[in-house]
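ARCHIVE CARD
Drawer: 12
Card no.: 0347
Subject: one protein chain, sequence and derived structure
Cross-reference: see card 0346
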Amino acid sequence: MLIQASLNGGTTRAEHPAVPLTPAELAAEARAAAAAGARSIHVHPRDLSGAQTLRPEHVLAAVAAVRAAAGLPVGVTTGIWAVDGDVSRRMSLVADWSGRDRPDFASINMNEPGTDALADLLTAQGIEIEELRYEVEGDLDLHRFLGLGGPRAGFSAIRARGWVRSPNATKEQLDDLSVYVENTSPVRDILAAAVPVTTELVVMADGDRR
C-alpha cells in the first residue's frame, strides 16, 4: 500500500490557519509527511496572495521545495478553477511546466472541459497521470417504442462501472474521486434526477424556412 499526502488542496487560511501555502511551508509539511510514512506528495500551488495557481513560476517553485525536502514524487492539481475556467490558458500554463522542477505527476478532473488535450500534453511532458474510464449499460424494452405496448419507452435501469489505475493513490483517495465524479457529473445528475422536459411542435407552411 502506498500512502500519498495531500498537503493543502483548496483549503484557505480562513478555513484553517495552519494550511501550508508557500513553498517553504509545503516543504516543511512534506518532510513531516515523509517521516510519518508518506511515499508521494500532492499539492495545490499558490501565488503570493494565497490563491491557487497553475503559473509555472509558482508550480515549479513548490515542486522543487517539496521534492528537496521530502525526496518523494510530487504531483500537482490541474483544476480549471485555478484559471477561472479558461481551457486555453490552462494549456498554455501547463505547457511551460518544464525543466528539472516539473511535477512527477498531475491530477486531472475528468468532468472538466479540455481533459483529453490536457492529458496528451502532460503525457508528452513525461508527467505521470491517472487512467479513468467508465462504461454505462442499461435495460431497455423496445416494445413501447415499436408500438407493441410495454411499461415505458425509456430505460428501466442504468448501471455505470468505473476503472481507475494510479501508481500512487490510496484506495480511500480513489473512492473519494469516485464520489466526486458522481456528485459533479452533469450527465449522471440528469439521469438520476427528474428534469422538466418541454416539447414544442411548429407546423410550417409550404415555403417556410427554419
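Annotation on reverse: The beta strands are 4-6, 40-43, 74-76, 105-106, 131-140, 155-165. The helical segments are 23-35, 56-70, 87-95, 115-124, 171-184, 186-192.
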